[in-house]
Amino acid sequence: MIVNQLTQHRASLIILIMCKLTEIKKIISILTILILANVCRAQLNDERMQWFADAKYGIFIHWGIYSLGNTSESWAFYNKQVPYADYMAQINQFSAERYNQTQWAKLAKQSGARYAVITAKHHDGVALWDTKLSNLSIARQSPAARDVLSPFIKALREQGLKVGIYFSLIDWSHPDYPGFTRDSNRYNVADDTLRWQQYLNFCHGQIEEIMQLYSPDLIWFDGDWEHSAKEWQAEKIREIIHRHNPNTIINGRLQGYGDYDTPEQNFPVTRPNLKYWELCMTMNSSWGYRVNDTNYKTPFEIICILTDAISMGGNLLLDITPKANGLIPQEQVETLNTIGRWINKHSEAIYGTIPGLPQGHFYGPTSLSKDSTSLFLFLPAKTFGQIMLKGISSTINKVTILGTNHQLQHKVVGKISWSPVPGLIFIDVPKEQTDSTMTVIKVEFDEPIKLYRGKGGLN
């Protein structure tokens, strides 16, 4: 009797264990599927983002009724610097009479940019395209009397550049949008959800319109700070975009539903959180054309900013400010041409590179080829004489000045035969071989570069 009970008990235990093992196997299978799905999703995202990661440099274009040059864009009435009616009256003088979309696109390409982003609609709500959802557009209310966005999108594609479209989520002119000026709101979302939904229908409708008309490579949102992701229905916005073009990438201003970080004006000291990032920056002090703003950054300063961004794996989106008549200020044209000549000479160190050396190995920005067998050192201004690299464990094959193929001498100092710690590398850069703006040194290795990150001594 007791033996039978023990036998039954053992059988029950075995069945229970087998059931548990089956459950564990199911859990492991589900977890494996989820992990593989996440890996596949990450790989697909990297493929979608690859052109952006390789581009390094784009042109930002702020063009709208504020381009008469007398006020800032949209913020002028929001901050009550000018009355709303006076600000909006500028549309009556927006002529675009000297606008040449082909010249704009060619200039962007000549500057070395691989993509361009243009303000299809800023916070004032004025659309550059002939939107069917509103009468507030350049086509319907300005002397230009035409869609000025579509020709530029076409010209960009003819030049082989990626298309980016800036779209403001907020629209301070729309009667159903809550915000109007800094101290004046039309209503609170919580108090009138129906009215807010009416605005969302309009906002999402214009995004759908843009996707249908242009299928851009990039959507550059702005204004997300005024509402939460839930209020914007950010997940739905992303779905609208990817339903039309699953390869369209989205900047970081969609409350957590974007693909890359977008620091503005202020340069990061440490790399932003997301894998991909882009610094957007003005060429002077203004996003839109201002008659009296002559505070221009020099080509050297912009190239310094560009190489610093590249060194940390980011892009630079440099703003230009066409006038209301369509002309781009000559100072900006000259700066872009100078940048373009420098980039063309040193393109190998820019396009398609990956982040350079961590801090401590070289006093300046660097980048690496994708296979990490070539290291590029950016030398500001007319740096010449000896420059130093440290913590490089790989053997150098050759050192040249990029764009000239002039070979440089180097020597290793302080290498102790019995220590794994590499010596210091000194490279001699002759003054007569330096670039007038920024010299780039190419250091080649026979293998992917190996770095020593220790504290010296015997380790």
Average pLDDT taken over every residue: 93
How much beta, percentage-wise?
15-25%
Q: How does the helix and strand content classify structurally?
A: alpha/beta
Biggest beta sheet attributes: 7 strands, parallel
Q: What is the fourth-level CATH superfamily of the largest domain?
A: Glycosidases
- CATH topology (fold) name of the largest domain: TIM Barrel
Helix percent reads: 25-40%
Number of domains: 2
The number of distinct β-strands equals 18
CATH architect. name of the largest domain: Alpha-Beta Barrel
How far apart, in Å, are the first and last alpha carbons? 70 Å
List low-pLDDT spans: 36-40
Shape: flat
Order of helices and strands: HEHHHEHHEEEHEHHEEHEHEEEEEEEEE
Radius of gyration computed on alpha carbons: 28 Å
What does this entry show, briefly?
By secondary structure, the chain is of the alpha/beta class. It has eleven helices and 18 strands.
How is the topology of this model organized?
Layout: H1 2-55, E1 57-61, H2 75-78, H3 84-88, H4 101-110, E2 115-121, H5 138-141, H6 150-158, E3 162-168, E4 179-181, E5 184-185, H7 193-214, E6 218-222, H8 229-232, H9 234-244, E7 249-250, E8 278-281, H10 299-311, E9 315-320, H11 330-345, E10 354-355, E11 366-368, E12 374-380, E13 385-389, E14 396-401, E15 406-407, E16 410-413, E17 424-429, E18 438-445
Structure, explained:
There is one protein chain. This protein is an alpha/beta fold. It has 2 domains: 296 residues, Glycosidases (TIM Barrel, Alpha-Beta Barrel), CATH 3.20.20.80; 91 residues, Sandwich (Immunoglobulin-like), CATH 2.60.40. It is 33% helix and 18% strand. The protein contains 11 helices and 18 strands. The strands form 4 sheets. It has a 7-stranded parallel sheet with strand order 7-6-3-2-1-9-8, with helices on both faces. It has a 6-stranded antiparallel sheet with strand order 10-11-12-18-14-15. The protein has a 3-stranded antiparallel sheet with strand order 13-17-16, with no helix packed on it. Helix 4 packs across helix 6 and helix 10 crosses helix 11. About 1% of the residues have low confidence.
